[in-house]
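Supplementary material to the annual report.
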Amino acid sequence: MALDSTETKAEAGGIAGERLRSLIERIERLEEEKKSLANDIKDIYAEAKSAGFDVKVLRKVISLRRMEAQERAEMDEILTLYMHALGMT
Amino acid sequence: MALDSTETKAEAGGIAGERLRSLIERIERLEEEKKSLANDIKDIYAEAKSAGFDVKVLRKVISLRRMEAQERAEMDEILTLYMHALGMT
Amino acid sequence: MALDSTETKAEAGGIAGERLRSLIERIERLEEEKKSLANDIKDIYAEAKSAGFDVKVLRKVISLRRMEAQERAEMDEILTLYMHALGMT
Amino acid sequence: MALDSTETKAEAGGIAGERLRSLIERIERLEEEKKSLANDIKDIYAEAKSAGFDVKVLRKVISLRRMEAQERAEMDEILTLYMHALGMT
DNA sequence: CTGCCATTTTACCGGC
DNA sequence: GCCGGTAAAATGGCAG
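Predicted assembly:
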């Protein structure tokens, strides 16, 4: 690899390298937080289990609620589309 | 289902119902945050892409770094296992 | 369901039915073989245990070796990606 | 680690080391075959999909058939138990 | 819209 | 025999 002679070691790879490093760090930081939240959720499921709830059922309940929420959002979206189509904005 | 006559509608299902509701809400709250983080990550990938980086490569790099970190953790763990197995606790 | 009058019982459901049956049988056959292999593996772990090896450690070792192999494969893959990204195909 | 002075490097770890190596290799070999079968199965699902079958439904069908087979096996087992209990072996 | 990858759910296995 | 944790299957989401 041919480096520009004015380049120091720290700059090897150039600006793009720094940019890349920054992007990677930001992503890794967020993924860490995400994993942390996933662990928190796991803990709550464990808590639920030790409180006598059936975890599998609990998961299903939450999944259903999520689906319903999504359906509602989609219906809102369609409604909005209709209203726009009818000039009712 | 026979409800205790002193029970109001809000209490239907009893204490367990309240506990369940609380668990569900906590989980849903955390999942929302998790999803939000996922979106943030997606945004960074988009940013990377528009800065000219190859997203596929970027993902691989991050995946590889994650694997390496995990492998290091596993090696620590197996070392501990060895020591226990050898009575070196 | 209205069957074509020239259809025999064996053909009920039509060509697609036969195709489906064939697919299912092939899958089930392979899954049987797979399960058989899983049993063989289990037997070896049992053998290892009765030979005095710590099964947990053994599993970790194998898991670690698998990870290492995979990481090597990934590094090859990312190298290919780099070369493509740099137009060095 | 103190090695017996008559031990060469190749023998370090002793007989147990050889035994361990053999066990690991046998397991890894079988796991490779297992993975290969898993890939074959995946291929069939892909084939099914491109033939217009709904893969998700297909999986359910196979899963149900597996459950039924298992149930039948369990019933046979119970029947055998009864027969033994009644001296009808 | 299809294939691929991450996440999630399910099933298994050893330990208590 | 359950439970906790680990590996496999399956589902869902995303980029191309």
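Chain B has a mean pLDDT of 89.
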